């Protein structure tokens, strides 16, 4: 068994949390064969089940016509239990942005968002129920950590999104998912083993997995340095995104409390190690917060830190939560911040924000349901 990531040891889910039932997506192909045999079925049924789940998105045993009727329910109970159900969908942008509120098997609530653009389809998924990082401007962080999601609970968000695209539930006709971002609820590297397992299921060729490209996956982290080093040794070609939010330790200690353990330069050095090993540019995520971290001098400082490095800065206009003192920057301050970074030759863009009409910020919809 893989050694737990340092992030998992430090930021584990509360003790006593119920363990999700075992699911096909939690297991490797070899483990699936063992589980099928333990259920009294022939091992080759594991590949048939994988084909139904990962390639056909067929969760109803009645659709498994290549499996004897007498075996279907037994296999469903053994390997395809119901992990999560849709509480509701909320849509905006003429239906091309759809946020889903999920209820997990134990009543826990999580969210995912599907965003369709003219040239791509992106899903933002959750890796934890809640978050233990305690960033004060984040709705999820203020709610605290309920528990880690299982590998299958992570994967199922994408499987359902791919089914919805195939079945035309999102306007624009059938489509295929092109990008996955681990930027929903939770700190992915604090749930290290399950997130890595999910990446493998997403990118294993069909029918062992979904057959997606690692290059279309982005994993976001606030900067759990030991876990970043470990992630760099996995051999992935995913993109790593570091949620920096401040170029100076004094402010980042407040905005991203984990910075009191691993400082800005340590986080950047770890991220650049991942970039070197993966061959992918490091993405620097920076939420612009009015009068807090959006001063032009901070943009200049960030540009100086990143000059000449294989990075891209992704500025995020803050999606404020109701009643919060934190809000988005003024347009003129946003522009001055962009110019200060670009003056150092560092690539910088402003993220296209979606979903404000549907509680778009991570954790808002789950919080309102509670």
TrEMBL record:
Its EC number is 2.1.1.192. [4Fe-4S] cluster binds at residues 131, 135, 138. Residues 117-357 form the Radical SAM core domain. It is found in: Cytoplasm. Keywords: 4Fe-4S, Cytoplasm, Disulfide bond, Iron, Iron-sulfur, Metal-binding, Methyltransferase, rRNA processing, S-adenosyl-L-methionine, Transferase, tRNA processing. The active site is at residues 111, 362. Its main location: cytoplasm. Residues 1-41 are annotated as: Disordered. Residues 23-35 have a biased composition (Basic and acidic residues). S-adenosyl-L-methionine binds at residues 186-187, 220, 243-245, 319. It comes from the Bacteria. InterPro entries: Aldolase_TIM, Methyltransferase_A, RlmN_N, RNA_MTrfase_RlmN, rRNA_lsu_MTrfase_RlmN/Cfr, rSAM, rSAM_sf. It catalyses: adenosine(37) in tRNA + 2 reduced [2Fe-2S]-[ferredoxin] + 2 S-adenosyl-L-methionine = 2-methyladenosine(37) in tRNA + 5'-deoxyadenosine + L-methionine + 2 oxidized [2Fe-2S]-[ferredoxin] + S-adenosyl-L-homocysteine; adenosine(2503) in 23S rRNA + 2 reduced [2Fe-2S]-[ferredoxin] + 2 S-adenosyl-L-methionine = 2-methyladenosine(2503) in 23S rRNA + 5'-deoxyadenosine + L-methionine + 2 oxidized [2Fe-2S]-[ferredoxin] + S-adenosyl-L-homocysteine. SUPFAM superfamilies: Radical SAM enzymes. Binds 1 [4Fe-4S] cluster. The cluster is coordinated with 3 cysteines and an exchangeable S-adenosyl-L-methionine. NCBIfam families: rRNA_mod_RlmN. Reaction proceeds by a ping-pong mechanism involving intermediate methylation of a conserved cysteine residue. Belongs to the radical SAM superfamily. RlmN family. This is Probable dual-specificity RNA methyltransferase RlmN. It comes from Streptomyces fumanus.
């Amino acid at each position: 068994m893989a050694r737990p990531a340092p992030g998992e040891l430090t930021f584990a889910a509360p003790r006593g949390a119920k363990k999700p039932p075992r699911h096909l997506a939690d297991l490797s192909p070899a483990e699936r064969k063992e589980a099928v045999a333990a259920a009294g079925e022939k091992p080759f049924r594991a590949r048939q089940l994988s084909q139904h789940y990962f390639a056909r998105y067929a969760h109803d045993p009645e659709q498994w016509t290549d499996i004897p009727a007498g075996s279907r329910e037994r296999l469903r109970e053994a390997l395809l239990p119901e992990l999560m159900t849709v509480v509701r969908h909320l849509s905006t942008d003429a239906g091309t942005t759809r946020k889903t509120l999920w209820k997990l098997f134990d009543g826990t609530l999580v969210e995912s968002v599907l965003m369709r653009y003219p040239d791509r389809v992106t899903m933002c998924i959750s890796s934890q129920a809640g978050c233990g990082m305690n960033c004060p401007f984040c709705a999820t962080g203020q709610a605290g950590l309920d528990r880690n999601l299982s590998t299958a609970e992570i994967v199922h968000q994408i499987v359902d999104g791919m089914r919805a695209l195939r079945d035309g539930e999102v306007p624009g006709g059938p489509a295929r998912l092109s990008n996955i971002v681990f930027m929903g609820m939770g700190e992915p590297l604090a749930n290290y083993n399950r997130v890595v397992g999910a990446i493998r299921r997403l990118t294993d060729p069909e029918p062992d997995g979904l057959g997606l490209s690692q290059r279309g996956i982005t994993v976001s982290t606030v900067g759990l340095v030991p876990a970043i080093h470990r992630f760099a040794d996995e051999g992935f070609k995913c993109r790593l995104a570091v949620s920096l939010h401040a170029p100076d330790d004094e402010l980042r200690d407040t905005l991203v409390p984990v910075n009191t353990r691993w400082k800005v330069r340590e986080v950047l050095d770890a991220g650049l190690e991942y970039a070197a090993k993966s061959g992918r540019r490091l993405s620097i995520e920076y939420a612009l917060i009015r009068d807090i971290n959006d001063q032009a001098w901070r943009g200049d400082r960030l540009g100086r830190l990143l000059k000449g490095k294989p990075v891209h800065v992704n500025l995020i206009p803050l999606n404020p939560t109701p009643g919060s003192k934190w809000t988005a920057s003024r347009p003129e301050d946003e522009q001055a911040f962009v110019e200060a970074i670009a003056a150092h030759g560092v690539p910088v863009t402003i993220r296209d924000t979606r979903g404000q009409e549907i509680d778009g910020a991570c954790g808002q919809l789950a919080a309102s349901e509670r």
